[in-house]
Amino acid sequence: GLGRLAACFLDSMATLNLPAWGYGLRYRYGLFKQRIAKEGQEEIAEDWLEKFSPWEIVRHDVVYPVRFFGHVEILPDGRRKSAGGEVLNALAYDVPIPGYKTKNAISLRLWDAKASAEDFNLFQFNDGQYESAAQLHSRAQQICAVLYPGDATEEGKLLRLKQQFFLCSASLQDIIFRFKERKSDRVSGKWSEFPSKVAVQMNDTHPTLAIPELMRLLMDEEGLGWDEAWDVTNKTVAYTNHTVLPEALEKWSQSVMRKLLPRQMEIIEEIDKRFREMVISTRKDMEGKLDSMSVLDNSPQKPVVRMANLCVVSAHTVNGVAELHSNILKEELFADYVSIWPKKFQNKTNGITPRRWLRFCNPELSEIVTKWLKTDQWTSNLDLLTGLRKFADDEKLHAEWAAAKLASKKRLAKHVLDATGVTIDPTSLFDIQIKRIHEYKRQLMNILGAVYRYKKLKEMSAEEKQKVTPRTVMVGGKAFATYTNAKRIVKLVNDVGAVVNNDPDVNKYLKVVFIPNYNVSVAEVLIPGSELSQHISTAGMEASGTSNMKFSLNGCVIIGTLDGANVEIREEVGEDNFFLFGAKADQVAGLRKDRENGLFKPDPRFEEAKQYIRSGTFGTYDYTPLLDSLEGNSGFGRGDYFLVGYDFPSYIDAQARVDEAY
C-alpha cells in the first residue's frame, strides 16, 4: 500500500512538473509471489530482476558508505564521530518516471547494498574458507534481499533496522551532496537555506532514522552546532502517519539501536532530553503526560525508542491520510502533542493517478469519457468528469457504458480462468475485495457472508432460485508469511470456493474465487471489471484505503463502513450510490466494552454461518482457532475485537439491498 501510494505520487509529481524524486531500496526478491496449494498460501521469491529490468539505470559513480555498529569517538575539538564497525556501500539505480505529456522525467532512486573488494579475504578464500572469506558480501546481500523480512527473531528485527537505516543514510548523503554541488550556483551556500531547497517527506515511520542521521551528518560531517542542525532538520522533515494500529507503530529496542547505531542513539537521547526539558519549562500542566509523549520509553522491562513520537517531536508537519484518520490522530493518538503544537497537524487525503487507474487500465471506458466530454483533458484534470452529469439520463451513454463494462468483465473472466481454472459468468454480479489480508479489513466477514448465501441457496426450491441475483464473489490479497489467522482466512476462501463452484445445485447462482498473487498488474484487470467492491474494515481502523478510489473511478459501487476515505467518497458520489452498513468509529470502543461485559447478543444468521463451517461442509481443515477469535467476551485472540459479529446483520441486510439494486 505504501509503495503503490508513493508510485502514484511520483506519477502525479512528474505530470505536474514538480522537481521531486523518490528514494527506496532495490529489493531483489520483492515481498513474495503467492501460490495457492492444498495447505493454503505458499510464499516464493519474486523473480522480477531475474531476467534484468529494462527500466533501471545503474549509477556506478553514485556510491555512499553506510556504517553499522562501531563506537563513538570524541575528537580533540570536542566533536563526536562514528568509527569502527562495518561499512557497506550504497549503489544507486535510477528508474525514470515520465510525466504524462510533459518534456521531463523525474527519478526513483533505489539503493543496492554492496561490500567492497577490500572486504573480500583472499587469504581465507584460497585456504578453502569460502563462507567466511565473503562474510561482509553476504551481509550486504541480506539488506536488499526482501521487503519486510520476518521479524519474529532477534536477527529479523536487526535486519529490518539495518534496511531502514541503509535507506535513510544513503538518501540523505545523496541529498546533501546535491545541495553542496549546487552551492556554487548561488551567492551564499548557507545551511540555513537547506530547508528552502530540500523537503524530506517520511512515508510512515520506516524512514524515521532520517531524523538522527540528518542531525549526525550536519553536526559531525558538516560542523554545525546542535541548535543550527536542529533548526535545519526540523524545517526539512515532515511525517505522514499511515496507521493507528498499535502493532504497526514501530518501537525499537534501545539496546539493539545502541549496538547497531551508537551515534544515532546518542542523538535520539539528546532529542528526547531536550523535548522533556522544553515541556517542563513551558508547559508545567503537561508534565504528567511526559511518560507517554517522550521519544524514549524507559520502562525497565523493555526500554524502547518510539518512532512515531520521534517523528512528531522532530517534524515541522504531521499529516493523516483521510479526514476521519487525521481527526483520530488529533483527538486520540497524538492528542497531547496537539495542545503543544496546534498548527503541526493536518490532513492530506490520499489519492491515485488517473493515468494508470482509468486511462491505461480501462481503455473502453476512457474512450467513452473522452467522446462524451469532447476532450481528453480529464486525464490530468479529473474535475472535468463532472461534465458527464448532464448526460446522466442519456440512454445512448448507458448502452455504451454497459458495453464497456461487459468488455472489462470478459477480460477479467479470462484472467480468472487462466489463473485459477474456474469459469465465471460475465453476466453475474462481479463482487470483489482485493487488499492485504488482515483481520481489521474483515475478509472473514465477506466469506462468512458468502457461506450464509450458499446455505440459503441450498435450502431454496428451484423456483425460488430463479429469483436470485447471480453473483461471483472474488477475494484476493497476500497474507504476511507469519500471520497465522490471515493465512487461515486465505485457506477458508479457497475451501469454500472448492465446494460452492463444484456444486451443480447452486453454481449458476454463486461462485467464490480466490484470486492468487494480487499485485498492481492483477488490479489493472480486476478493477475495471468490478461492479461491487467491498471496503468493510472496522470503522476507525483503515487510515484511508486507495483501492476504494480506483474502483469508484471505474464505475463500480462500494459496499462499506464509514471508514478511511470511504467517508469522503460517499460524500462525493452521494449516499444513494453507496451501500453503507456497520458501527461508526466513535461507537467502537463502547461496543468492545459491552462485549467484555457480556452484553453482546449474536444474530442467528451469524451463528448459522459459523456453524456451517464448523460442521465440516467445506472440508476437514480445523477452522476452530480462526472461528474462536469471534467467540468469547475477552482474552487474547478472542472476543471478536474487530466486531465482525456486531456488524454482520447490517452487512447481510446491505448485501440484500445490493442484490435488489442489481
From TrEMBL:
Swiss-Prot/TrEMBL keywords: Allosteric enzyme, Carbohydrate metabolism, Cytoplasm, Glycosyltransferase, Pyridoxal phosphate, Transferase
Annotated InterPro entries: Glycg_phsphrylas, Glyco_trans_35, Pyridoxal_P_attach_site
Q: Which residues carry this modification: N6-(pyridoxal phosphate)lysine?
A: K550
List the residue ranges forming a coiled coil, or say none: none
What is the top-level taxon of the source organism? Eukaryota
Which Gene Ontology cellular-component terms appear in the entry?
cytoplasm
Task: Give me the reactions it catalyses.
Answer: [(1->4)-alpha-D-glucosyl](n) + phosphate = [(1->4)-alpha-D-glucosyl](n-1) + alpha-D-glucose 1-phosphate
A GO BP term here is:
glycogen catabolic process
Q: Which cofactor does it need?
A: pyridoxal 5'-phosphate
Query: Does the record's keyword annotation contain Transferase?
Result: yes
- Where, per UniProt, does this protein localize? Cytoplasm
Q: Name one GO molecular function term.
A: pyridoxal phosphate binding
* One Pfam family recorded for the sequence: Phosphorylase
Q: What is its main location?
A: cytoplasm
Enzyme Commission number(s): 2.4.1.1
Q: Is Cell division among the key words of this record? A: no
For this protein, the record's PANTHER family field holds: ALPHA-GLUCAN PHOSPHORYLASE 2, CYTOSOLIC (PTHR11468:SF4), GLYCOGEN PHOSPHORYLASE (PTHR11468)
Its biological function?
A: Allosteric enzyme that catalyzes the rate-limiting step in glycogen catabolism, the phosphorolytic cleavage of glycogen to produce glucose-1-phosphate, and plays a central role in maintaining cellular and organismal glucose homeostasis. Phosphorylase is an important allosteric enzyme in carbohydrate metabolism. Enzymes from different sources differ in their regulatory mechanisms and in their natural substrates. However, all known phosphorylases share catalytic and structural properties.
Family membership noted in the UniProt record: Belongs to the glycogen phosphorylase family.
Q: What is this protein called?
A: Alpha-1,4 glucan phosphorylase
